[in-house]
Write a structure and sequence with these properties.
Elements lengths: L8 H13 L6 H18 L4 H9 L3 H10 L16 H16 L6 H10 L8 H11 L1 E6 L2 E6 L1 H10 L1
Antiparallel strand pairs: 1-2
Protein name: (apollo) hypothetical protein
Organism: Parnassius apollo (Apollo butterfly)
Length: 165
Amino acid sequence: MFRPWEISNSASTSDENSVQRRKRHLSSDAQDIVLSVYNKLLKRMGDKGVIKETSELTNVPIRTVCRIVLAGHLPRKRTKISFKRIDNFTEEYVRRTIYNFYLNNEIPTLREIYQSLMRSEAGFEYSETTLWRLLKKLGFKYGKLDERRTVMESPRLLLLREKIY
């Protein structure tokens, strides 16, 4: 039977040491804190022992503090990328382009659709990734045809079109 009160203190300290030795990734916020503590201590104490003191105050290894200080600047924050809004005309134009592929007995892949849109005079100014997102929004999906991935309409849209027409 397991009795936690019977565990010796030496076993618990070795577990604590192994936890401390484990590498951790510092978030950019934590790196900001380490750098700001270093800068404050540098102003107060001068050059002697600042890195060691920063390490003790922030509980971050000395080597990591050195790496953050040598970088010399605050880490970059990730910003959310905003995309241009796609209007209804462009959505319909993309849909017609895909239908033209099927009318010409061609298999529409994402790259071929994108190249066709870039060659056209309509001025498609979006990236391939944005086109992929647009195709998902319009209800197209990918399927395999002759061992190649191709763009197809979802069965739900096909049923809706049959009911309308």
